[in-house]
């Protein structure tokens, strides 16, 4: 049985004071007995602060991105080995905002996936389509292509230690959310895509949903057969909302 996972993506938000308030609330609510993995993806500047709250096994530390380079003269970049040194357990890669605003390619994302796994860090690989692509009936083609771009480079065995996140771009930060049925349909497409390489790994792979998840819609989304949790943006900045989302599973 797949263990659910809920990841808070704080994006470029936070400061020491507000972070402390959130983390203290989370620590009071989450512990190792909770039947879900709770992951906090903080900005690089606050990984050290967040790591101090990830010692009771209730919370796990994640980064929001990683460099495709291992080391060298790449000013401003953060390598996978540096994240490992900070005790990161997870890192988000391929987020739509990285693809859209920073023009990251499938090839770069596949390299990042490999860098993370070489350091024992679990990648949270994001895939998703734009509104235009959905309206053109290209959703399945787009997400499958994004997934295969990594599978064909890293091999299906690498997905034994990976999480896949479906995040329709048209539903991120817009207040729009894919219906549970729409999300389930795409999650099944993704699981079936992995199954063409290895059925056992596909069945074990956690696939989470991201796209304006909140305390009102989380239960319906998470009840779907192939949805194993969520990648939570804005709602993860509100302690009460995020705690409720994590506890509906």
Q: How would you spell out the order of helices and strands?
A: EHEHEHEHHEHHEHHEHEH
**What is the straight-line distance between the termini?**
14 Å
The total of helices stands at: 11
Decide which structural class fits the backbone. alpha/beta
Radius of gyration: 17 Å
Summarize the structure.
The chain is an alpha/beta fold and 249 residues long. The chain has helices spanning 16-29, 47-51, 80-85, 96-101, 106-118, 131-135, 139-154, 180-195, 199-204, 218-222, 239-247, and strands spanning 5-9, 37-42, 60-63, 90-93, 122-127, 163-166, 206-209, 229-232.
Task: Please tell me about this protein's structure.
There is one protein chain. The protein is α/β, with parallel strands linked by helices. Helices cover 41% and strands 15% of the residues. The protein contains eleven helices and eight strands. Strands 7-6-5-4-3-2-1-8 form an eight-stranded parallel beta sheet. The longest helix is centred in the middle third of the chain and has 16 residues. It is globular. The mean pLDDT is 95.
Topology of this structure?
Blueprint: E1 5-9, H1 16-29, E2 37-42, H2 47-51, E3 60-63, H3 80-85, E4 90-93, H4 96-101, H5 106-118, E5 122-127, H6 131-135, H7 139-154, E6 163-166, H8 180-195, H9 199-204, E7 206-209, H10 218-222, E8 229-232, H11 239-247
Parallel strand pairs: 1-2, 1-8, 2-3, 3-4, 4-5, 5-6, 6-7
Helix pairs in contact: 5-7, 7-8
Key terms:
eight-stranded parallel beta sheet; 8 strands; 249 residues; single chain; alpha/beta
């Amino acid at each position: 049985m797949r263990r659910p996972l809920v990841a808070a993506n704080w994006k470029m938000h936070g400061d020491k004071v507000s972070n402390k308030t959130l983390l203290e609330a989370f620590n009071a609510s989450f512990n190792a007995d909770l039947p879900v993995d709770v992951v906090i993806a903080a900005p690089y500047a606050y990984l050290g602060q967040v790591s101090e709250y990830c010692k009771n096994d209730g919370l796990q530390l994640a980064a929001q991105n990683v460099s495709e380079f291992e080391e060298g003269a790449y000013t401003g970049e953060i390598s996978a080995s540096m994240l490992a040194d900070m005790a990161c357990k997870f890192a988000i890669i391929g987020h739509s905002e990285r693809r859209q605003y920073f023009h990251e390619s499938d090839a770069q994302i596949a390299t990042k996936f490999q860098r993370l796994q070489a350091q024992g860090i679990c990648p949270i690989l994001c895939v998703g389509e734009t509104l235009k692509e959905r309206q053109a009936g290209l959703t399945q083609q787009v997400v499958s292509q994004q997934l295969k771009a990594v599978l064909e480079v890293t091999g299906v065995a690498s997905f034994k230690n990976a999480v896949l996140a479906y995040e329709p771009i048209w539903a991120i930060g817009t207040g729009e959310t894919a219906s549970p049925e729409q999300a389930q349909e795409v999650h099944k497409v993704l699981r079936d895509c992995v199954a063409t390489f290895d059925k056992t790994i596909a069945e074990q792979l956690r696939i989470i949903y991201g796209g304006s998840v909140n305390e009102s819609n989380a239960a319906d989304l998470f009840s779907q057969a192939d949805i194993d949790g969520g990648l939570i943006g804005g709602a993860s900045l509100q302690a009460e909302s995020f705690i409720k989302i994590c506890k509906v599973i």
